[in-house]
Write a structure and sequence with these properties.
five-stranded antiparallel beta sheet; 582 residues; two-stranded antiparallel ribbon; globular; 8% strand; Heat Shock Protein 90; alpha+beta
Length: 582
């Protein structure tokens, strides 16, 4: 039953609202920034060099990417209004946009890339605002599968990085430094506690780096050549191409779809970060998810204005918090500040980039392995049946097949091959199409619109009894369904403690599926979560109470098979499943 509480996270040392020692926040923030710095810098470098653009534009794009990643990471941590998650969600340049960004640069140059990224950001804001309407399409199964696909997509790159070293490097340098990093990091992750566990990532990298330097793998020439403080030539800013020619309209659908894929990734990350940042797991707050997608959109808007590659949430945020046990917002702020500082300190950036590929890859393998597990946890959080298993299995393995160019690679052509060549994109398409198919072929829904008021109870009761009668339910099951409707209405009304609250509308959607009735109650949003109350009751010993709300919660828990409460800005959605079998 979904109202049961997941095991507590006893390893969480600091929740988002808690404040660790300043030196701990700085240390963890710095190491997280160091671990993700290469991705932020190398993604625009790959795009710009593959597209044949100049070094001046490259320097500008990398500088802008660091500044924007810093600002958007801070926004995610502190949360301003409806922008930001209020959690540690590291922002950086998006690998999912590599192919379409290269195509934009080749077709129309940096100006075309800039305007396409801006339009993509507007699309992302629209997705965040209407996220509740996509709840049946972007489900935990889809979001969790996309996160798992990210791991499957990144792992081959990491395996290649293990052996990517300069020519003339001693043969033992790569395997020795990678093994040292991975063994120390894994040993500390498995057995360390207290302060040692918190510093496990930096210790593992430091040991691997030391081995690499000893074996002659590190190259410090870029550090010597770089300046201490500086910014690129502002004249390298590409401006905006507002001609809206053929290239714009040809590439716009691809950018829109990749933005959707990136939004799904952000949704999955923001769901997962809530799970690993609390000692006592709570129901997912979809206002937090909306805030994360909005902040992602702000980052993309700034990226478009600056003329650099779009950004996204880095899924390494989730295993980082899980590994260190620290989910405090202050760490996210420090990460953002470090990115901002590094943008103006080219010599420091160059030094951090001297960490050899085998060392970075070895530690990232540990991170990505944890990420894969988190994705599967999200996908299976509400249990698994043959339909969910079909979606997860097909989406994951078809995505993996396209990623490895094992599925019709020679027959897709350049455009389709470019789009489906990313395993996350291909797998996401499969997951979305299969989920949409299930929705379209489900039993017809019956709907009732009324006021959120106890005076509406007779109307609701009549609606549910008619639904049960047409579904062929017996009297006992019909009575149970009517009682669930009554208790759900009571719980929604009990959250309106303010007598001056404006009247709210209630929409009820009912459908049946293999002997189970699914009821959706849609109403204006409130601060409490029914699902959390039910989970709390599950942990307690049954006892007599005079609190009418507690009695109502227990009755709902007794009669319903499962209860799920999704909270969005200005909208509450309570989904209740009731079986026709006692």
């Amino acid at each position: 039953m979904s109202t049961q509480t997941a095991p507590g996270h006893d390893d969480v040392r600091y929740e988002p609202d808690e404040q660790p020692a300043h030196i701990l926040s700085v240390g963890l923030g710095f190491q997280a920034a160091m671990l993700t710095l290469a991705g932020i810098v190398l993604t625009p470098a790959i795009v710009i060099r593959v597209a044949g653009q100049g070094e001046d534009y490259l320097n500008w794009a990398v500088f802008a990417a660091l500044v924007i990643s810093g600002l958007s990471t801070i926004l995610q941590a502190v949360r301003v209004g409806r922008f930001g998650a209020g959690h540690i969600l590291i922002m950086g340049t998006s690998g999912a946009f590599i192919a379409v960004s290269v195509a934009a640069l080749v077709e129309g140059g940096p100006g075309l890339l800039a305007i396409l990224v801006i339009i993509s950001a507007v699309f992302q804001f629209a997705l965040a605002a209407r996220l509740s309407f996509l709840r049946r399409l972007i489900t935990p199964v889809v979001a969790g599968t996309v996160i798992a696909l990210i791991a499957a997509t990144v792992m081959p790159i990491l395996f290649d990085m293990l052996t990517t070293v300069p020519r003339g490097t001693p043969a033992a340098a790569a395997p020795a430094s990678a093994a040292a990093t991975l063994l120390v990091s894994a040993a500390l992750a498995l057995r360390a506690s207290g302060i040692w566990r918190l510093w496990a990532p930096i210790i593992g990298i430091a040991v691997g780096y030391a081995v690499a330097v000893w074996l002659g793998l590190a190259d410090f020439s870029a550090v010597v050549a770089a300046g201490w403080i500086g910014i690129p030539d502002p004249s390298a800013w590409p401006g905006l191409d507002l001609s809206f020619d053929r290239g714009f309209w040809v590439l716009l659908p691809a950018f829109a779809f990749v933005t959707l894929v990136g939004a799904i990734e952000t949704i999955g990350d923001s769901v997962a970060i809530q799970r690993v940042s609390r000692r006592n797991p709570q129901a997912t707050d979809y206002r937090t998810v909306q805030g994360a997608v909005n902040a992602d959109g702000v980052g993309n808007l700034l990226s478009g204005i600056a003329g650099t590659v779009p950004n996204t949430t880095y899924s390494s945020s989730v295993p980082f918090v899980e590994l260190t046990g620290v989910g405090a917002r202050s760490v996210g702020v420090v990460i953002g500040v470090v990115f901002l500082a590094l943008a103006f300190l080219p010599k420091v950036t160059a030094f951090l980039l001297t960490i050899p590929n085998p060392v970075v890859a070895a530690y990232a393998i540990l991170f990505i392995g944890l990420l894969f597990v988190q994705g599967m946890k999200i996908a299976l959080q509400d249990g698994v049946d043959y339909r969910k298993a079909t979606i997860i299995g097909l989406a994951f393995w078809i995505g993996t097949g396209f990623q490895n160019q094992a599925i019709f690679a020679d027959q897709l052509g350049f455009e389709l091959g470019t789009l489906l060549g990313n395993g996350m994109t291909a797998g996401s398409i499969v997951a979305l199409v299969l989920t949409l198919f299930v929705e379209l072929t489900s039993a017809r829904r019956r709907r009732l619109k009324t006021d959120l008021d106890m005076a509406s109870l007779p109307q609701i009761d009549e609606f549910l009894r008619e639904f049960a009668s047409k579904s062929g339910w017996d009297e006992a099951a019909t009575q149970r369904l009517a009682l669930v409707g009554e208790e759900t209405l009571t719980n929604l009304l009990s959250q309106d403690d303010d007598e001056d609250t404006a009247p709210r509308r209630l929409h009820i959607v009912a459908r049946r599926d293999r002997g189970v009735a699914e009821l959706e109650f849609l109403a204006a949003s409130d601060e409490e979560n029914i699902e959390d109350h039910l989970a709390h009751l599950t942990e307690q010993r049954p006892e007599i109470t005079d609190d009418e709300r507690q009695i109502s919660f227990r009755l709902l828990q007794h009669y319903a098979s499962s209860v799920r409460h999704q909270k969005y800005h200005d909208l509450d959605i309570v989904t209740v499943h009731v079986s026709n079998v006692s």
